[in-house]
Amino acid sequence: MSRARRRLSTLALVAPTLLAAAAGHAQSPCFDPEAVPPWQAQTVGVDSFGASRPEGPPDGAEVAVCVESAGFTPLRDDFQGLFQGADHTFEVEATLDELDPGAEAGLVLSRDPRRPEAAMLRVIAQRDLDGDVTVRAAFRAMEGGPASALDSEAVPVELPVTLRLWRASGVAHTAIVTENGLEPVLAVPVDGTDLEPKGSAGLAAASAVAAAL
């Protein structure tokens, strides 16, 4: 097996929109979902509703997401996502152009993105109701266990922000891409965890405070 990282894709999240703001908790997507090859759309959580579609060229590089969900919490993750299978060495990057106040979006490595309690590593940009944006990371080593930020801290950023997630040599990494290179957020060894086998990686968006809008 080659040890070179497999580049999954570079995504630009053009317009993540809170479903609650657009549809008044209608429990249906605020636009018709469309395929975004080579990504597989996934709505995670019984109370999550959402859709994704291409924006711009039909190559899966620019997408819009509409979502209402409970968001990312220590014990479960409810979101609208776009995933590909991730090998033991891979890299995925996403540029978040816009975030509605109360929305959060970023990159997730998941053992099984269909399961809200799955083992995962995530790096997420969150925009609060005042408009401030921070990037946070968290790691859940075992399915059903708590997610922890470990030693990482929230990083204030401005939009657009580019995030990168990759795995190599048994370690999964998250970082913010800046003009001066990579600003590490959280790196964790995955050998001996539920993320040691192959999983899925991709984009995830949620509306953590949708009920307040």
Structure description:
It is a single chain. This protein has 213 residues and is mainly β. The chain has a single domain, classed as Sandwich (Jelly Rolls). Helix content is 2%, strand content 51%. It is built from one helix and 16 strands. Strands 1, 2, 4, 5, 8, 13, 14 and 15 form an eight-stranded mixed β-sheet that branches. Strands 3, 6, 7, 9, 10, 11, 12 and 16 form an eight-stranded antiparallel β-sheet that branches. The relative contact order is 0.23. Mean pLDDT is 82; it is low at 1-10, 13-26 and 209-213.
Largest sheet: 8 strands, mixed
- Per DSSP, the total helix count is 1
Q: Please provide the count of β strands.
A: 16
Radius of gyration: 16 Å
Nearest-integer average pLDDT: 82
Look up the CATH topology: Jelly Rolls
Key features of this structure:
2% helix; 213 residues; 1 helix; 8-stranded mixed β-sheet; 16 strands; Jelly Rolls; single chain; mainly beta; 8-stranded antiparallel β-sheet
Any chance you could write out the topology, listing elements then pairs?
Layout: E1 6-13, E2 17-18, H1 19-23, E3 40-44, E4 49-54, E5 62-68, E6 71-72, E7 77-86, E8 90-96, E9 103-110, E10 120-127, E11 133-140, E12 155-157, E13 161-168, E14 171-178, E15 181-189, E16 199-207
Parallel strand pairs: 1-5, 1-8, 2-5
Antiparallel strand pairs: 3-7, 4-5, 6-7, 7-16, 8-13, 9-10, 9-16, 10-11, 11-12, 13-14, 14-15
Summarize the structure.
This protein has 213 residues and is mainly β.
